[in-house]
């Protein structure tokens, strides 16, 4: 089985899947520091920067799509701007949902902040 990861961070899902024998073939992560960590730990994984610029046209199909949208505006540790905040926008959620339908062949695994239900 193969995985693709959205909002990959430093590759927590990638590492877990690797330990389970599942290879991650691409990550989408905008943060340069996180990209550096991903390149060091997963040198064969292709890295894309912006979830708004990827899709079926440039992502290889995967069995599992993993990740979780940015939660800074929803988290109790953030400014709590809500789901319409610049860093946790409804648009990013829609991008993620669209990619699930277009790229994942067998399923998806996502993490969400415990405060998400308060905002939808």
Give me the side-by-side strand order of the main sheet.
3-2-1-4-5
According to CATH, what is the class?
A: Alpha Beta
CATH superfamily: Vaccinia Virus protein VP39
Task: Quote the average pLDDT.
Answer: 78
Portion of residues within helices: 25-40%
Report the β-strand fraction as a percent range: 15-25%
Name the helix and strand elements from N-terminus to C-terminus, one letter apiece.
EHEHEEHE
In terms of topology, how is this protein built?
Elements: E1 2-6, H1 12-19, E2 23-28, H2 32-41, E3 46-48, E4 62-67, H3 90-103, E5 104-110
Descriptive key words:
single chain; Rossmann fold; five-stranded parallel sheet; alpha/beta; 120 residues; globular; 5 strands
Note down, in words, how this protein is organized:
With 120 residues, the chain is α/β, with parallel strands linked by helices. The chain has one domain: 3-Layer(aba) Sandwich (Rossmann fold). The chain has three helices and five strands, in the order βαβαββαβ. It has helices at residues 12-19, 32-41, 90-103, and strands at 2-6, 23-28, 46-48, 62-67, 104-110. Strands 3-2-1-4-5 form a five-stranded parallel beta sheet, with helices on both faces. Strand 4, helix 3 (90-103) and strand 5 form a beta-alpha-beta unit. The termini are far apart. The model has no long low-confidence stretch (mean pLDDT 78).
């Amino acid at each position: 089985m193969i995985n693709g990861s959205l909002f990959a961070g430093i590759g927590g899902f990638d590492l877990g899947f690797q330990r389970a024998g599942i290879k991650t073939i691409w990550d989408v992560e905008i943060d340069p520091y996180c990209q550096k960590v991903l390149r060091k730990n997963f040198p064969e994984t292709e890295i894309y920067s912006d979830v708004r610029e990827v899709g079926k046209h440039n992502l290889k199909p995967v069995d599992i799509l993993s990740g979780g949208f940015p939660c800074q505006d929803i988290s109790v540790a953030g400014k709590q701007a809500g789901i319409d905040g610049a860093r946790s926008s409804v648009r990013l959620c829609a991008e993620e949902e669209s990619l699930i339908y277009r790229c994942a062949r067998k399923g998806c695994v996502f993490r969400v902040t415990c405060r998400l239900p308060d905002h939808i």
